[in-house]
Design brief:
The structure is a single chain. By secondary structure, this protein is an alpha+beta fold. It folds into two domains: about 160 residues, Lipocalin (Beta Barrel); about 130 residues, Nuclear Transport Factor 2, Chain: A (Roll). About 20% of the residues lie in helices and about 45% in strands. The strands form two sheets. A ten-stranded antiparallel β-sheet has the order 1-2-3-4-5-6-7-8-9-10, with helices on one face. The radius of gyration is 20 Å and the shape is globular. The N and C termini lie close together (about 10 Å).
Length: about 300
């Protein structure tokens, strides 16, 4: 995949050009980011989640949404970022990937403490600095800046972190159960699709479910409710559609489940595949909205 040379070149350039102000070479120095964080401003909500993937990787997910005119509708497609913090060759990098960008953008960790993580990439257009500051166990301030020092702040809170120890343990358990439940819901939905099980598919979505796609940076509503989705799937299944979907990865954050879905099919005796970022929004145990982004070769 061509993404690998581009990514490693970016990491190499950052490694040789940035100033290593503090010896921040252990990924454990970033562990205080782990958890679910929420920021609300007006009608906008940002949800960011971090968890440990392995000894050298942390994986994160960020989704920004805006409430629509109707309380139960979402006016705009979520702005979604898939995030990683990786330890590589004795250094720490923060990787941010959005569906709009072909390659991840890499930021090097140049300063850290028990309450501060500063990542930098002076060659990027914007942002150039992403700085996480732990104000308290329940508050997180993220400063996003350009080379001119201008930018914006995100003020996150984590209610479960502000609770007592017992309440914290219970809250974390509930949060983990909710994430597992949301992911299981998405798995059931995709499995039903692969089995052409229309009734089971419809059992995983609510009456107002919307299935949307991104085309030329515009949100296209493919089906506007459950009845339209049922009709579209009936037509597809009856036409002999044989495309299968595989969930390559799943990341949960609040009410959202972010995934990379690999679609495979055969044409003229040859196998084909493509991958798409997709975001599911869950409400009351059912899928409320689905956003599909631009498909690319896997």
């Amino acid at each position: 995949m061509k993404i690998i040379p581009g990514l490693f070149w970016a990491l190499f350039c950052l490694s040789v050009s940035a100033t290593d102000k503090v010896n921040c070479r252990d990924i454990q120095s970033t562990n205080w980011l782990i958890g679910q964080w929420t920021a609300k401003s007006g009608k906008s909500t940002v949800e960011e989640t971090w968890k440990v993937l392995d000894k050298q990787n942390m994986v994160g997910f960020s989704a920004t949404t805006q409430l629509g005119v109707e309380p139960h509708k979402t006016a705009s497609v979520p702005f979604v970022e898939t995030l990683r913090i990786v330890e590589m060759s004795g250094e720490i990098f923060y990787l941010a990937k959005t569906p709009q960008n072909e390659f991840p953008v890499a930021f090097k960790l140049i300063d850290c403490s028990s309450t501060r993580l500063k990542f930098e990439n002076r060659q990027h257009d914007f942002p150039n600095v992403i700085e996480y500051n732990r104000i308290s166990n329940s508050r997180l301030l993220v400063k996003v800046r350009g080379n001119d020092g201008k930018g914006f702040d995100i003020n996150y809170t984590s209610q479960k972190m502000a609770a007592s120890k017992n309440a914290l343990d219970n809250s974390m358990s509930v949060s983990q159960d909710k994430a597992a439940s949301n992911e299981a819901l998405v798995v059931r939905y995709v499995r039903a699709y692969n089995e052409s099980a229309l009734t089971e598919m419809m059992g995983q979505v609510n009456e107002d479910v919307q299935w949307m796609s991104m085309k030329d940076n515009q949100v296209i509503v493919e089906t506007g409710d459950k009845a339209e989705l049922r009709k579209a799937m009936q037509h597809y299944f009856s036409g002999g559609g044989d495309t299968k979907s595989t969930l390559v990865s799943l990341i949960s954050g609040g009410s959202f489940v972010s995934a990379i879905e690999k679609a495979t099919w055969k044409s003229n005796g040859k196998s084909h595949s493509q991958c798409s970022p997709v975001v599911y929004e869950v409400e009351d145990g059912l899928i409320k909205n689905v956003w599909y982004y631009r498909a690319e070769k896997c």
